[in-house]
Amino acid sequence: MVNPPVLASSSSVSPTVKSDDMGAFLFYLFVNKSKACPTSAGGSPGGLPPNCNISGLTPGGKAVCAAEQAAALQKPYIWGGPLECRGNWGSCPQLPQISGFDCSGLTGWAWFQAAGLNIGNVTTTQLANIPNHPAVSDLQPGDLVFFGYGNVHVAIYKGAGKVIHAPQPGDVVREADLNGLAGYFDGGIIGTARPQ
C-alpha cells in the first residue's frame, strides 16, 4: 500500500490505494488537482501530460508541472532514463509508460514536453548549451540547478526553495529542498540555466 503524494491539494487527507492500482491512483490525482497543474482537456500521446497543457502557464511552469507528474507517479531513478526515448524526445510514450528517469533525463524530458526544446540529456551538455544563467537568488520555476564538482546532478526549480529531481538508484522522482540538496553535493550549486 502507498499513500499517493498530494500536490498542493486543498485536502490534507491522502487515501490509501494499492500500488498496482494505477487507475485509482490517476483518479486520485484528477480529484486532488494541483494548483500548479490544473486539469484541462488537451495533450497528445507522448506529449505534455494533459493537465499541464493549459493556457497562461509559462513554459517553465509547464516543465515543472511535467516533472511534478513524474514525481506523483513515483517514477524510479533509472540511469540513462527515460530509456524509451533517449536521443529522440519526440518519440517518448505517454508518461505512465515511461519506466523511469535519471536526473538529466527528467529535466530534458520535462523541457521538451513543455516547450519543444531539446536541451540535451546529459548534465554537462545542458549547462553548456543553455546560454542564460540566472543567479540563484533570481531562480524562476522551470530553471535548472546543477550540483557538485564535475556537474554530477541537475534538478528543476519548482519555486519557494524547492526542486524536483531524480535522486539516485533505489529512489524515485521527488521534491526536495534546494538548500538541503546543495549541502549534499561537494561543491554545492555549481550553476544554473534558464531554457528559452
From TrEMBL:
Among its keywords, does the record have NAD? no
**UniProt entry tagged with the keyword tRNA processing:** no
UniProt keywords (A-Z) are: Hydrolase, Protease, Thiol protease
Gene3D superfamilies this protein is in?
endopeptidase domain like (from Nostoc punctiforme) (3.90.1720.10)
GO MF annotations, alphabetized? cysteine-type peptidase activity
Mind telling me which SUPFAM superfamilies this protein's record contains?
A: Cysteine proteinases (SSF54001)
Tell me the superkingdom of the source. Bacteria
**Which GO BP terms apply?**
proteolysis
Q: Which InterPro entries match?
A: NLP_P60_dom, Papain-like_cys_pep_sf, PG_Endopeptidase_C40
Domain NlpC/P60: from-to ranges? 59-196
- What PROSITE patterns has UniProt attached to this entry? NLPC_P60
Q: What is this protein called?
A: NlpC/P60 domain-containing protein
Q: Which organism is it from?
A: candidate division WS5 bacterium
